[in-house]
Amino acid sequence: MKTKKSSKQRRTRRSKRSKLLQLPTQTHETRRVIEEGVSPLVEKYWFQRYDLFSRYDEGIKLDEQGWYSVTPEQIAIRQAKRCENATVVIDCFAGVGGNAIQFASMCYHVVAIEIDPLKVNMAINNARIYGVEDYIDFIVGDFFQLAPSLKGDIVFLSPPWGGPSYRRVKKFTLDLLEPKDGYAIFQAAQAITPNIIMFLPRNVDLLQVEELCWLSSPPLEFEIEENYVQGNLKGVTVYFGGAAASQCGPS
Ligand SMILES: C[S@@+](CC[C@H](N)C(=O)[O-])C[C@H]1O[C@@H](n2cnc3c(N)ncnc32)[C@H](O)[C@@H]1O
């Protein structure tokens, strides 16, 4: 009886000590959150900053939407590796450059379209940090207006999911995508090439995704990949046409 009590006391003392040891690190991180002016909405993403950009500390810039919508680096690398033989990749919703940087790192030429000029400035800054700005043509503009004049081997679509609230719906239907529904986005891309990659929420309605293949005749091949970071499901990448078969070459 006496022995049991003393071992319990020892356990309690040890756990108190480990709490004390964690304190300086937490304080340092909290201080950085304040110094960098991180808003409560993006605080959670700031703690994952190195998953988003491994070179974050070298001067990476993101605005609020950029924080919650950038593709985590390991996922962007994976998506880029799947385009091995392509010469020109068009990133139609480029944001702060998470995907464009990884496509360019694989030595493709990238056309990066983004409607918000402030994000384009951030993307240029971020691409410079990764040393790939010379491989990317940044265009400030509306993808839907530019689409008829674009040429490329692969079209990459990472449209807005409507903010962090996408998680609240049980099934994310394609009409929830912005700035137009998933069918309209896909059709604009198809006019450029059938080799399309789409990055979608983890709760996307997969039956609707399959329907996209039937917008083409014969229907496009497709492949669905779940994307995890640190064991957490972050999204779903769908590869269509030649991108599904990993056979995208210059057209
Ligand atoms: C999900 S984010 C892209 C994130 C990007 N893949 C990254 O890793 O940084 C979607 C982006 O599409 C942009 N956008 C919205 N409508 C657009 C349009 N019509 N044409 C081009 N870009 C648009 C938004 O400003 C936003 O930055």
* Structural classification: alpha/beta
How far the N terminus sits from the C terminus, by CA atoms, comes to: 79 Å
- CATH arch. level architecture of the domain at 71-243: 3-Layer(aba) Sandwich
Question: Total number of β-strand segments?
Answer: 7
The Rg value, from CA coordinates, equals 22 Å
Average pLDDT number: 89
Runs in which pLDDT lies below 50 for 5 or more consecutive residues are: 1-15, 247-251
Helices and strands in order, then pairings?
Layout: H1 2-35, H2 40-46, H3 49-52, H4 64-69, H5 73-81, E1 88-91, H6 98-105, E2 109-114, H7 117-129, E3 136-140, H8 143-146, E4 154-157, H9 182-190, E5 196-200, H10 206-213, E6 222-229, E7 232-240
Parallel strand pairs: 1-2, 1-4, 2-3, 4-5
Antiparallel strand pairs: 5-7, 6-7
Helix pairs in contact: 5-6
The chain binds S-adenosylmethionine.
Which features characterize this protein?
251 residues, alpha/beta, Rossmann fold, seven-stranded mixed sheet, 7 strands, disordered C terminus, binds S-adenosylmethionine
Structure description:
Helix content is 41%, strand content 16%. With 251 residues, the chain is an alpha/beta fold. Mean pLDDT is 89; it is low at 1-15 and 247-251. The protein has helices at residues 2-35, 40-46, 49-52, 64-69, 73-81, 98-105, 117-129, 143-146, 182-190, 206-213, and strands spanning 88-91, 109-114, 136-140, 154-157, 196-200, 222-229, 232-240. It has a domain at 71-243: Vaccinia Virus protein VP39 (Rossmann fold). The protein binds S-adenosylmethionine. The site of S-adenosylmethionine has 23 residues, from helix 4, helix 6, strand 2 and helix 8. GO terms for molecular function: acyltransferase activity; RNA cap trimethylguanosine synthase activity. Keywords: Acyltransferase, Cytoplasm, Methyltransferase, Nucleus, Phosphoprotein, S-adenosyl-L-methionine, Transcription, Transcription regulation, Transferase.
